[in-house]
């Protein structure tokens, strides 16, 4: 009796077929070349990490961790992201180099899915970490590099939305004071982008009409050119004004970088409840229903590895980038050379000549093709060098 799971895969796991694999390879190469040209160095970390260190430090919820035990009884996790492992490396093996350090990565991460909702449990991220510099110049560099990397991959239409966690928390503190529970509730609505729930909860809390109006205005602080000035007008909180000041400096620097047309501001953007500590951003592309990339400043991660260093960075979902890119043929010529027992040498010479010209060539014995094979349809050019055959 055949195993009923013979052709099945674990929940959330996917195969990568040749066309998609090739598209990922090209996108990965374009991203990597751009990132390296900005002075970032690639490194790799183990896929398995300790739960008590990297697992606890990660921004990913524990319910999404793949856990297992090693032979010594330690609980391990498949890495759910690459930021925490790189922070571990920077705080231990690279700390003697001195900060700042510019690091980059490319590799798979693993996040367990509870139900079959179409989300992958394994996917590849390409990203950077700028560690050891707490300045608006570092934030601007990372965002500008994010833009240039996406452009280098061939993506033409995309938008980065930029926010600042300090502004949102400052405004909520100004309105709710020590009532952290209520502040966290509204923060959670923003994180989940549940604006209907936000407005409903706003009607139920005991606030002045002025404060209710300010929180309603918070939801509209996005997109427009004068959004930063509007954000400044609805608060007297010092943390809020500091955040606006940083965003204005960032806006000016991004204009110098020449990437302003790719960015907009959203003052109620929350990418994570407690992970980011300053400027944060998300990237989207038309017709892509999911987040393409995200990043921001996370100054509390390195201290968890006993290193008093700040950091900022970004991560690009490679599978979603490929999905966002044009689905047209890549323009490369794929060649099939057919031969038989009498024409192998001729076929080999033809294949070698085409490969020398940069073409991708498959050399195939014609007699070993299955009947009704669709193999020839997958190639740009087919050369049949068997007796009596033609191009």
Automatic annotation (TrEMBL):
CDD domains assigned: HisRS-like_core
GO molecular function: catalytic activity, acting on a protein; glycosyltransferase activity; histidine-tRNA ligase activity
Record-linked Pfam families: tRNA-synt_His
GO cellular component, one term: cytoplasm
Major site of localization recorded for this protein: cytoplasm
One example of a Gene Ontology biological process annotation: histidyl-tRNA aminoacylation
Limits of the Aminoacyl-transfer RNA synthetases class-II family profile domain: 29-328
Subcellular location: Cytoplasm
Keyword DNA-binding attributed: no
Function summary: Required for the first step of histidine biosynthesis. May allow the feedback regulation of ATP phosphoribosyltransferase activity by histidine.
Note: This function is generally fulfilled by the C-terminal part of HisG, which is missing in some bacteria such as this one.
HAMAP family in alphabetical order: HisZ
Protein's UniProt name: ATP phosphoribosyltransferase regulatory subunit
Protein species of origin: Pontibacillus yanchengensis Y32
């Amino acid at each position: 009796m055949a195993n009923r799971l013979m052709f099945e895969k674990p929940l959330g796991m996917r195969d990568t077929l040749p066309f998609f694999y090739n598209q990922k390879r090209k996108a990965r190469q374009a991203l990597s070349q751009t990132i390296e040209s900005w002075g970032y160095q690639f490194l790799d970390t183990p896929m398995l990490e300790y739960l008590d260190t990297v697992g606890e430090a990660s921004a990913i919820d524990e319910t999404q961790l793949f856990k297992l035990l090693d032979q010594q009884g330690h609980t391990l996790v498949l890495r759910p992201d690459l930021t925490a492992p790189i922070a571990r490396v920077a705080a231990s093996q690279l700390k003697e180099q001195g900060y700042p350090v510019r690091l980059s990565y490319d590799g798979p991460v693993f996040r367990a899915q509870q139900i079959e909702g179409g989300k992958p449990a394994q996917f590849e991220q390409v990203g950077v970490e700028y560690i050891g510099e707490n300045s608006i110049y570092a934030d601007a560099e990372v965002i500008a590099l994010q833009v240039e990397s996406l452009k280098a991959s061939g993506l033409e239409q995309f938008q980065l939305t930029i926010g600042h966690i300090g502004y949102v928390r400052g405004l909520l503190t100004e309105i709710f004071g020590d009532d952290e529970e209520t502040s966290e509730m509204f923060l959670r609505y923003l994180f989940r982008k549940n604006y209907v729930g936000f407005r409903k909860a706003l009607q139920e809390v005991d606030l002045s009409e002025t404060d209710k109006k300010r929180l309603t205005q918070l939801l509209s602080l996005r997109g427009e050119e004068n959004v930063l000035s509007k954000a400044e007008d609805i608060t007297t909180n010092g943390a809020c004004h500091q955040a606006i000041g940083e965003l204005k400096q960032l806006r000016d620097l991004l204009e110098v970088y020449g990437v302003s047309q790719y960015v907009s501001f959203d003052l109620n953007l929350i990418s994570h409840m407690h992970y980011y500590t300053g400027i944060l951003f998300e990237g989207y592309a038309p017709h892509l229903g999911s987040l393409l990339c995200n990043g921001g400043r996370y100054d509390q991660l390195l201290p968890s590895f006993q290193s008093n260093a700040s950091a900022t960075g970004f991560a690009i979902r490679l599978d979603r980038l490929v999905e966002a890119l044009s689905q047209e043929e890549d323009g490369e010529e794929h060649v099939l050379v057919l031969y038989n027992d009498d024409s192998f040498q001729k076929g080999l010479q033809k294949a070698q000549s085409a490969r020398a010209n940069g073409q991708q060539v498959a050399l195939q014995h014609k007699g070993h093709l299955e009947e009704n094979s669709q193999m020839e349809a997958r190639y740009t050019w087919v050369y049949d060098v068997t007796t009596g055959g033609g191009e």
